[in-house]
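hey so u asked for the seq, here:
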Amino acid sequence: MKANVIVFPGSNCDRDIKVALEKFQLKTKMIWHQDKEMPKSDLVVLPGGFSYGDYLRCGCMASKSNIMCEVIKHANKGGFIIGTCNGFQILTETGLLPGVLLRNKKLKFICKYVNLLVENNSTPFTSKYKKNQKIKIPIAHNEGNYFAGEKTLDELEQNDQIVLKYCDENSIVNNESNPNGSCLNIAGIVNKKKNIIGMMPHPERCVESILGGTDGSGIFQSLIN
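ran it, structure tokens below
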């Protein structure tokens, strides 16, 4: 498989995701945000970080970058896209995924490992996990509070588009296990066609035991599968 990682000014997880992709034998190229053309690939990744310093609205300025026209074309052709953290925010800003990401409920930056419940393991990004499996992946964000209207939330549930939810050590989804105030404890969703995933946790930071765990590996293994 081939992957393109989009690099914006302020990205700080672009190299991390490249290392993770190459660990799983995905040939990876770094693509600058001002480019107007993008090499053909199976996967496009919008990495975490603080694109444009988050000076306007997280992901908003990045969504207007030249390269995003190519990313949207890739999505419309059925190509795979992963947006992690700031990448998730960019996907909502471009309209490739529904909803918005707001400030965390306690208005503080959060950086820690969290428990996640795999709600849907029938997507190209989660097939290597078991349904209702509990995994542990780190988060690092200030605006990870996923919000959408009731109609959109109902559609997400009905279409099995919610793939990851924050949970506790006993796999229970509750307010106490929700680190940022996200509606329905949402940590990750996919589009209706299931070729795009947006998630606040960082799977690329969780593919080596020496870094604290390997639960993020399932995302990349699922793609290869």
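The chain has one domain: 2-224. The chain has a mean pLDDT of 97.
lmk if thats what u needed
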